[in-house]
Design a protein that fits this description.
The structure is a homodimer. By secondary structure, the first copy, chain A, is an alpha/beta fold. Chain A has two domains: about 110 residues, 3-Layer(aba) Sandwich (Isopropylmalate Dehydrogenase), CATH 3.40.718; about 180 residues, Isopropylmalate Dehydrogenase. Helix content of chain A is about 50%, strand content about 15%. Chain A is built from 13 helices and eleven strands. Chain A has an eleven-stranded mixed beta sheet with strand order 3-2-1-4-11-10-5-6-9-7-8, sandwiched between helices. The two termini of chain A are about 35 Å apart. Chains A, B: Its EC number is 2.3.1.274. Chains A, B: Keywords: Acyltransferase, Cytoplasm, Lipid biosynthesis, Lipid metabolism, Phospholipid biosynthesis, Phospholipid metabolism, Transferase. Chains A, B: Pathway: Lipid metabolism; phospholipid metabolism. Chains A, B: Belongs to the PlsX family. Chains A, B: One of its GO terms (biological process) is phospholipid biosynthetic process.
């Protein structure tokens, strides 16, 4: 597979993206296009050895910063690594585009360049979260802060395709994030969405019903949909709870002498624990609803996270999720009043 | 102080509330009115020894279940422990009312019986959450699932009074839960709320700005406001993340022989850790916006959680938060277009 990587995106670009790309071509055998300022990328690449034909630099002079407003970028930075990368994807020279840059900008430029899947009103950013059994596919986590029921309904249809074909769930269990299990619980948005999903259930969609905050991590659902405001709050809250609990545990260990002695023997367990909750293991966030696959990686990604984001991107492209979303729209998307 | 306790509320009533009351009168010296079916309460009370004059039973024949709809309870169960308890509070025979019953029902009956503070449109349920430094006061966590900016604005004013007088924060830092620190980030609701809070800041309210999901537990804010849908999702998500991380850690310890040996020495640390994240230590959720103090305890409260809910209730009453909310409304509540 041929991956297009924004070499200028993220907190430590181009150092981190270049190193992530080198690791990915060596470990997975991908072909990677590094898009960005040629000189800067070349300087980084020269540090490493790798099969020469596997990495190609594509020059793009403009650099998008975290402070740039998406609307400004569309107008004024037309030769940015985002624009050049998205165009390469559109023209078919690569199979997937990955960026750890400014989320709003990646979203805006990708949408502008690639266009939406027919029938999908709003693309969504998703998160693949580890749960007790496997993983939960949560969307939207930040692209759409004010939604209507039809948007959440479409998120469910897109999530179903991703969970089925990429995460290999045979018949993905779909949940609607709400504040009670009962069908009648929720706010105006979720109550409206519930009705649409219940209709799609009659056509075969495996809509289980309302999910609660606790269901994101307990493995009772494969796909959970919510608006981008709620999803983003959940994502940031989870990251912080995990960090804070680790810190409290550490403080308690340091308080008790006997525990301090025992803590050394715990190192293998703590390492396994960290690996299971470390986002770097899970890679980037698929952007769903566009005509081609795009992955948004965390701005603070390290090289390993970039490498894994490329892997997630290749799975996204290989499994033809875009086509499967189109099939799902055909199957479930036509609903009265929708 | 005189506490009115719903003896019929919660998963194991009247066993748990009665035991919690006995522990509270012994440890704190409160006077407790146990409201509910006299026979059932008496049977439980007979198991324990305590200063006889400190506990009094007030009979109420109707029992509210978790399945009862709030509107039905108002009409059909007028002699429920909720009605009788709220009336005792209204008449001044007690200082605070505590219930671990059906949240919607406690809310509805309390609102109906006690009425709202002048100028407050919607009472809110709050949660006192442990953070890295002290605690965060989060509201609303479930009473109001669809809110307008003015409601969140009033939550902030109420939260300020609680944090200042009960949690003893000198100048409580108030945050608006959103999806980015920048003033312009958020959805329609938070953007509208931001404007109202910014106006109150000119009058002296310590509104710091937007908070993110991670700020609920990191101690950067004393009060965080959000709508009841988002707050409820956050609360349930946090409880589950904590439980799941503990489970993952346990699994990892069991996987590694050397860690298994060391785990024994960790017991004191793990005990301290559990104590710090255990909701039972923190007691119930203050219901703010009513003319008298009401506390809603967790439905699955054990006796210790009930005892601590009574303590939280007494602090709520003693510090005269209701009067301080009225003062805050006078000071900050009159805003153009509000």
């Amino acid at each position: 597979m041929r991956v297009i990587l924004d070499a200028m995106g993220g907190d430590n670009a181009p150092y981190v993206p270049v190193l992530g790309a080198v690791q990915a071509v060596k470990e997975f055998g991908y072909k990677v296009f590094l898009v960005g300022r040629e000189e800067a990328i070349k300087k980084e690449l020269d540090k490493y050895s790798f099969p020469v034909s596997s990495i190609e630099i594509v020059n793009a002079e403009d650099v998008v910063s975290m402070e740039d407003q998406p609307s400004e970028i569309l107008k004024k930075k037309r030769n940015s690594s985002l624009h050049v990368g998205a165009k390469l994807l559109k023209s078919g020279e690569g199979d997937v585009f990955v960026s750890a840059g400014n989320t709003g900008a990646v979203m805006a430029v990708s949408l502008f360049t690639l266009g939406r899947i027919k029938g999908i009103d709003r693309p969504a950013i998703s998160a693949i979260l580890p749960n007790l059994k496997s993983q939960t596919f949560l969307l939207d986590v930040g692209a759409n802060v004010d939604c209507k029921p039809v948007h959440l309904f479409q998120f469910a249809i897109m999530g179903e395709a991703y969970a089925r074909y990429v995460l290999k769930e045979e018949n993905p269990r779909i949940g609607l994030l709400s504040i009670g299990e009962e069908d009648t619980k929720g706010n105006e948005l979720t109550k409206g969405t519930f009705k649409l999903l219940a209709k799609a259930r009659e056509k075969g969609l495996n809509f289980v019903g309302n999910a609660e905050g606790r269901d994101i991590y307990n493995g009772n659902f494969d796909v959970i949909v919510c608006d981008g405001f709620v999803g983003n709050v959940c994502l940031k809250l989870s990251e912080s709870v995990a960090k804070i609990l680790a810190k409290i545990l550490k403080e308690e260990i340091e308080k008790h002498f006997i525990s301090r002695l025992g803590a050394l023997t715990l190192l293998p367990a703590i390492k396994g624990f960290k690996k299971r909750i470390d986002y770097a293991e899970w890679g980037g966030a698929p952007l769903l609803g566009l005509k081609k696959p795009v992955i948004i990686a965390h701005g603070s990604s390290n090289a390993k996270a970039i490498k894994n984001a490329l892997r997630v991107g290749v799975e996204f492209a290989e499994t033809k999720v875009v086509e499967h979303i189109e099939e799902n729209m055909e199957k479930y998307g036509k609903i009265d009043g929708n």
